[in-house]
Amino acid sequence: MSKGTFELISSHGDHEQVVYCHNKEVGLKAIIAIHNTTLGPALGGTRMWNYRSEEEALIDVLRLSKGMTYKASAAGLNLGGGKAVIIGDPKTQKTEGLFRAFGRFVNSLNGRYITAEDVGTTVREMEYIFMETAWVTGIPKAFGGSGDPSPYTAHGVLMGIKATVKEKFGSDSLKGVRIAVQGLGNVGFHLVEYLAKEQALITVADIDPEKVKTVTARFGCAAVSADDIAYIDCDVFAPCAMGAVINDHSIQKIKAKAVCGGANNQLAEARHGDMLRELGILYARTMSRMPAA
Fold it and tell me: Do residue 45 and residue 126 come from a single domain?
C-alpha cells in the first residue's frame, strides 16, 4: 500500500519545506524540497527525469535534498541542503516557458533555495531560470556565472577513483585498471575522457544508445547493456546515473572490487554500505556534486 505524502516526507528526514510547483500552460510539474537551512540557504540542483510516478519523484527529491545538507556541512560551506525535480522527459519536454515558470517558483522562496544543474538539465536551462530569479548558479559565463560544472564534477570523481584504487591496490595509477562507468551524461562523459587519458580500461553503458555510440567511437572503450554494467567483472564500478543502484537485488551480483562514482544516493539504504564491506568491496562516496558557485 502506498504511503501518503506527509508520511513519505516524515519518513525521509525532517524537511523544513516541500513545495509542489504546477503550471498547466507550460506543462510544469515539479517538487522543491528544502531539507535544512541551519547553516545557510539550501543549495542543490534541479533534476529533470521521466519519473514513473509522482511518489517516485517525491522520494527522489527528499533523498537528494537530505544528502545535500550533509555534503554542504562536510565541505564546510555556509549552505543548507535542497533539491528540485521536474517530472518530464528531458529529451522532448524542455521549453523556455517551462523553465522560466519553474524559475518563478524558485524566486518565490526569496533565497531559501538556490538551484543549479543536475541530471537532465544544462547551462541552457539555468539561463532560462536566471531570466526569472537570481537564486540560481551554474549560469553561462557570459552572464557572470561559472558555466557548466560537469568537467569539475567529473574531475572530482576521477580523484576519488584514484584514491580508491590506491587504498585497494596500493597505487593510484589507473593504467590498465578496469573501470565500468554507468551513465554517460555530462559527468559520465567527462569522466570517461579523463579515464582515457589515464589509460584505464573502460567499459560504459547508458540507456541512450546514441550516447554510447558517441563515447565508444571517441574514446575506444567497450560497451555493455545498461542492465549489465553493474555486474561485469572489473576493478572499479563507477555509477554516474540515477541513485539506489546498490540495493537488495543488485548487491550480491556486483563483481567489482570497489565502487566509486558520481551518482547521488548510490546506496538504496545505509545498510548496503555494510553489506558491501562484508563482501570485501570497498565503497567510496565522492563529494563531487556540489554545484559550482
Answer: yes
Query: Cβ(114)–Cβ(135) under 8 Å?
Result: yes
Query: At 104, which CATH number?
Result: 3.40.50.10860
Q: What are the beta bridge partners of residue 182? A: 205, 239
- Reported as a single tens digit per residue, the pLDDT across 240-262 is 998 889 999 999 999 999 999 99
Note if the pTM is more than 0.85.
Answer: no
Q: In this predicted model, what pLDDT tens digit does every residue of 160-209 receive, in sequence order? A: 999 999 999 999 999 999 999 999 998 999 999 999 999 999 999 999 99
Residues that are catalytic: 83
Domain-ending residue, one of 143, 168, 193: 143
